[in-house]
Write a structure and sequence with these properties.
Length: 347
């Protein structure tokens, strides 16, 4: 079994099921384009992927929001598409467009994926984590993460992002055996990747299933819940002291099944879930995380203040981690982030 780092009493207390007042707060994409210091670092490299694979610069970017704000955790700066890259799929990020990949849609293209090369290609992320862990006090945990197999598979099959993940769903219907092989491969590589992050200093893990909401209930059970359950079970066997947060974005009422069937330690809630539903249906069973609208954080002002108060009132009495319902938008003024954190911290 791997040695587990011990750090982050506030966040880890909430993840263990305790009510913490005021609740801990970290933000998805808290390191990124809304910060001028990030844009300065980004200008030093040719591409986004180059930044993710440069441990010195990626560590600096990871730490930038902690230097500005009173956050309760760092999350390693990387991207969920590091895993396809590590499997040998061509991955590039086009400025103004997003990720572009060579699609994997048949047995021939699947055969080109090479798990054996993944440890070496993922090593820069581990080096980044080691730098971040060494730079932070023990009270601040570092969050490691990966994309869920379903979500990563959609990018690999589509060749990039899409509105409805239709190509991935089509392959799953037409060739479920090949699709299952891809999911199984992603499960194995993702487990190894998360364990490597723990070895490098991560003390919390999050699994991002950003496109979980595009699946019908039977597909959700097969392609979202089942792979995640396998990952969580294996992670618990190796690093039982490391909590796992699941984030099945867009799952709606299926979030309950995700909570009860995957074994995650906490559930990330997206903006669409009502606070009363989260409080009544999820929080009695599991710590909850979320779910402020990133657009509201962009807008700021009295509406932001009111919603923060409503969220704290609805969820602050139980195990709760304040976060967004998705990542910080690039246009967000840093002053709004500072305001949000001050509102949460004062309770």
């Amino acid at each position: 079994m791997l040695r587990v780092p011990t750090s982050g009493k506030r966040l880890l207390s909430a993840l263990s099921g305790q009510s913490v007042s005021p609740p801990p707060i970290w933000l998805m994409r808290q390191a990124g384009r809304y910060l001028p210091e990030y844009r300065e670092v980004r200008g030093k490299v040719a591409s986004f992927l180059d930044l993710c694979l440069n441990p010195e610069l990626a560590a600096d970017v990871t730490l930038q929001p902690l230097r500005r704000f009173d956050l309760d955790a760092a999350i390693v700066f990387s991207d969920i598409l590091i895993v396809p890259y590590a499997l040998g799929q061509k991955v590039e990020f086009i400025e103004g467009e997003g990720p572009r990949l060579e699609p994997v849609r048949d047995a021939r293209s699947f055969a080109l994926l090479d798990r054996a090369r993944a440890p070496d290609l993922l090593a820069p992320v581990y080096a980044t984590l080691e730098r971040v862990r060494a730079a932070l006090p023990p009270a601040i945990p570092v969050i490691g993460f990966c994309g869920a197999p379903w979500t990563v598979a959609t990018y690999m099959i589509e060749g990039g992002g899409s509105k409805d993940q239709a190509e991935a769903r089509l392959l799953a219907y037409r060739d479920p055996e090949l699709f299952q092989r891809l999911i199984d491969l992603l499960v194995e590589v993702s487990i190894d990747y998360l364990l490597g992050q723990v070895s490098a200093g991560a003390s919390v893990l999050q699994i991002f299933d950003s496109w979980a909401g595009s699946l019908p209930d039977d597909g959700f059970a097969r392609w979202c819940v089942e792979p995640t359950r396998t990952m969580v079970r294996r992670l618990k066997a190796e690093v039982p002291g490391v909590p796992v947060i699941g984030f099945p974005r867009g799952a709606g009422v299926l979030t309950e099944a995700y909570v009860t069937e995957t074994g995650v330690d906490a559930i990330g809630c997206d903006t669409s879930l009502p606070l009363s539903w989260i409080s009544d249906r999820l929080q009695p069973h599991i710590p909850v995380q979320g779910n402020l609208d990133p657009v509201l954080l962009l807008a700021g002002g009295p509406s932001l203040d009111r919603r923060v108060e409503e969220t704290l009132s609805a969820l602050g009495g139980g195990p709760f981690i304040f976060n967004l319902g998705h990542g910080i938008l690039p246009q967000t003024p840093p002053e709004h982030v500072a305001r949000l954190i001050s509102l949460v911290k004062r309770g």
